[in-house]
Amino acid sequence: MPAPFISVLYKTEKAAKSYAATQNVGTSNLYHGKNAADRLHPSVSFVAAEAVEHPRVRGNWFVALDVTVRYSARVTIEDSDPVPEEDDLTSKTFDCFVRSDLHTQLNAQSITDFHCIGIADLPREIRRDLEGDCWAETLRVTLLCTNTSLA
Are strands 115-119 and 82-83 parallel, antiparallel or unpaired? Predict the structure, then answer.
């Protein structure tokens, strides 16, 4: 049996991918965790980057979920800096993951022995990187999750 934090990472990714698939974000190229390396573009990947156990409630984990939208960068006519062309995909995807009821939406995905208790009261982060010939725009949301079903 995998360590609890490994399991909560994987299950958080699985719930996020399943939820995004129900939201028609604009691409069916959805990936989680290790599967995010071999992807078609445009794509959305879900990586639970880290889990920190709650200091007062063992078995509850603060999980940092990175939602990354990747798409090809095009070059301007002057052949200068690449510019983003998939703002709609990024907006639709990120909008799904900043909802106040995100934990309810993730729980509705019926992942075995997984429950998202809520959204951690931490600032969300957004970053944009150029990865080779692709833009990667990432939203980090921190969730409080557990490896048990509380339903």
Answer: unpaired
Contacts of 86 (CB under 8 A, 6+ apart): 42, 69, 71, 135
Q: What average pLDDT is seen over the chain?
A: 85
Report the pLDDT value the prediction gives residue 50, as an integer from 0 to 100.
Answer: 92
The number of distinct structural domains making up the chain is: 1
Read off the pTM: 0.86
Peptide bond into 42 cis (omega under 30): yes
C-alpha to C-alpha distances, 16 to 57, 62, 73, 116, 137, nearest whole angstrom: 24, 15, 25, 11, 16
Q: In CATH, what number is assigned to the domain containing residue 64? A: 3.30.70.1700
Domain that holds residue 60: 4-146
For tokens 């951690």, the residue is 120
pLDDT digits (tens, 9 = 90+) for 84-113: 556 788 999 999 999 999 999 999 999 999
Classify residue 151: in a domain, yes or no. Answer: no
